[in-house]
Amino acid sequence: QQKTGKKGFVFGVNQQKAKVIVTSFDLLERIHDVIDQIPCVEKIVYLQYDFQKTQQTPKFPEHVKLIPFDQLEEMGRKTLIKIPDKLPSVDQISVIMYTSGTTGIPKAVMFTNKQLISAVLCLASNVIEIADQGPRHRYASFLPLAHSLGFTFEWFLFCGGVSIGYSSPYTLTDTSPGNPAGQLGDLKLLQPTTLVSVPLILDRIVKEIYLKLSARSPILPPLFTYLMQYKTRWTNRGYRTPILDRIVCRRVQEQFGGKLEFIICGGAALNQKTEEIIRAALNVKVMTGYGLTETTGGVTGKTLDDMSFGTAGAPMEGALIRLVDWKEGGYSFDDKPNPRGEVVIGGENVAQGYYQLEDETKAVFQTDSNGIRWLYSGDIGEMLPNGLLKII
After folding, report:
1. Which residue of 108, 182, 368, 390 is surrounded by the most CB atoms within 10 Å?
2. Name one GO biological process term (predicted).
3. Which residue segment(s) compose the domain that 29 sits in?
4. pLDDT tens string 213-263
């Protein structure tokens, strides 16, 4: 529901004729509100905190069975499950993930096992150093798993043995709206080394930094901006600023756990000022990129050591990018100084299509004579001389 809204949730459950829903205790009320619109549902498995076990659950119709997750675990311990002789194939559909549905109903994108593996390898080509030292890293997960970047990145982390703590955008910091006064934010509690975020969350973090500075003195925000610009200039030249890091940046870092090293950002273009402040104040490496649900997450990305701004990076391992003319919009591969056009993405991480939407699938997905699957994204891009993609 967080991604597609109530109507999208009802549509998706009915489209797939889902018999089981796995959710959390706090979302039971929302499901109860629409249960009469999803008659296919027979069981609801829900996770709950200890303090919620004394709270009353909504009364569902008799044909819907509520199962607490700890009860499900106990059932599993008492039941011997025979491993099937026929294991899943690489071409089997393993996930159906819905787009946000900016126009009309949300589309259900079909992922195969091969696509998920390709998506993990794609990410690994740019951020392998996180998995290489997996046991020492900790990841704070607050993007919904219905977000393709958050979903595939967690698969990547599993491969490296990185520990994961689950959070929420509403409880990240001490002053987040979901935290009562005096409650520590999740970032302070988890002390993560790695985050995956969308630009909106990073914008909020920067806003919170400036609000705290303003509360102390009106002179601090402009002074802080000057110091971060100073640090950015010198780090871009290959120098470090140890005194500034120790006196100023360390205090900022402590507000967000004190151990952050990497931030991966996708979902939209990241404001340059926000990226500069995040990099400098938190002393982290930031990787931005580009991808869609239809490509199982990211397909281009900057390396963690790339200090440039304003691009979506280069194609990652296994991803193919080409530009095609969009004459109606005035964009052409022959444009000067750089080629421009609609971004077309190919490779094994491109989805099979939209579930039960054959016409929509044919409109944007194509397979060429070499068997390569291509997606016509509808986004306009510019290819820079250094091989980096810029989304216009």
Report:
1. 108
2. neuron differentiation
3. 5-87
4. 999 999 999 999 999 999 999 998 989 999 999 999 999 999 899 999 999
